[in-house]
Amino acid sequence: MTTPALYKRIVRRESHSPRSGAAITIAIILMLGLAYLGVESVLAAIGQPPLLLAPETLVSSTLSAASAPVPLLVAIGAVAAIIGLVLIVVSFAPGRRGRRGAASDRTAAVVDDRVIAQSIARTVSYAGDVDPDNVRVTVGTRTVRVDVTPTSGRAVDRQAIQDAVAEDVASYDYRPALRSTLHVSKKGKVA
């Protein structure tokens, strides 16, 4: 495997979450269900009373489900379809961690979104002459939202902040790329 391909693979591994959590949950549910059926079968085989339902009762009620009321069957089918749809979406949707990566020919870098948010908050604080406690930055999948609450009685240079944020975000070479939005509160905060 070439070095750039290896770097891209490392960045992908660190920025995407694995599906093991969902797979383990489904496996545990299936194991519990099968263990329950096994316990009920053993209890029926040795002539003991069932815990919940005897295997014969469970099979006969499953086979006679077609004679149940239609709304009940529709509700059960809808729940099963929703569970199936959720499992399909979880299996195909990309699991994202709060990280971004950049890979070049010589190195790979993975940066947490909180680090990016802190850097942008510091940039906004310096560019707008705003107290760092009055700046809140949220980094999403493709967007950076900057919320500034000015100190009461002091004007904030919105254009200077916007330019500084745009320059800072443009300097990042991370994938996926980021777009920034700035929101300046109409109400001030007492310092």
Describe this structure in words.
β1 and β2 (108-112) form a beta hairpin. The model has no long low-confidence stretch (mean pLDDT 83). The protein is elongated. By secondary structure, it is of the alpha+beta class. α5 (113-128) packs antiparallel against α6. It has six helices and five strands; from the N terminus they run ααααββαββαβ. 53% of the residues lie in helices and 14% in strands. The chain has helices at 3-15, 20-45, 55-63, 70-92, 113-128, 158-171, and strands at residues 99-103, 108-112, 135-139, 143-148, 179-184. The chain has two domains: 18-92, no CATH class; 111-184, 2-Layer Sandwich (Alpha-Beta Plaits).
- State the low-pLDDT regions, or none: none
Radius of gyration: 28 Å
**Count of alpha/pi helices:** 6
Major sheet attributes? 3 strands, mixed
Give the SSE string. Answer: HHHHEEHEEHE
Structural class: alpha+beta
Features:
191 residues, alpha+beta, 2 domains, three-stranded mixed beta sheet, two-stranded antiparallel sheet, 53% helix
Question: In terms of topology, how is this protein built?
Answer:
Layout: H1 3-15, H2 20-45, H3 55-63, H4 70-92, E1 99-103, E2 108-112, H5 113-128, E3 135-139, E4 143-148, H6 158-171, E5 179-184
Parallel strand pairs: 4-5
Antiparallel strand pairs: 1-2, 3-4
